[in-house]
Amino acid sequence: MTANTKAIVVFDIDGVIRDVSGSYRRAISDTVEHFTSQAYRPTPTDIDNLKSEGIWNNDWEASQELIYRHFVSQGQQREQLQLDYEDIITYFQSRYRGTDSENWNGYICHEPLLAQPSYFQELTQSGIAWGFFSGATRLSANYVLEKRLGLQSPILIAMEDAPGKPDPTGLFATINILENGNNQKQTVVYVGDTVADMHTVEKAKAIDNSRIWLGVGVLPPHVQETTAVSEAYTQKLMQAGAKIVFKNVQELTMKTISQLES
Question: pTM of the entire structure?
Answer without folding.
Answer: 0.91
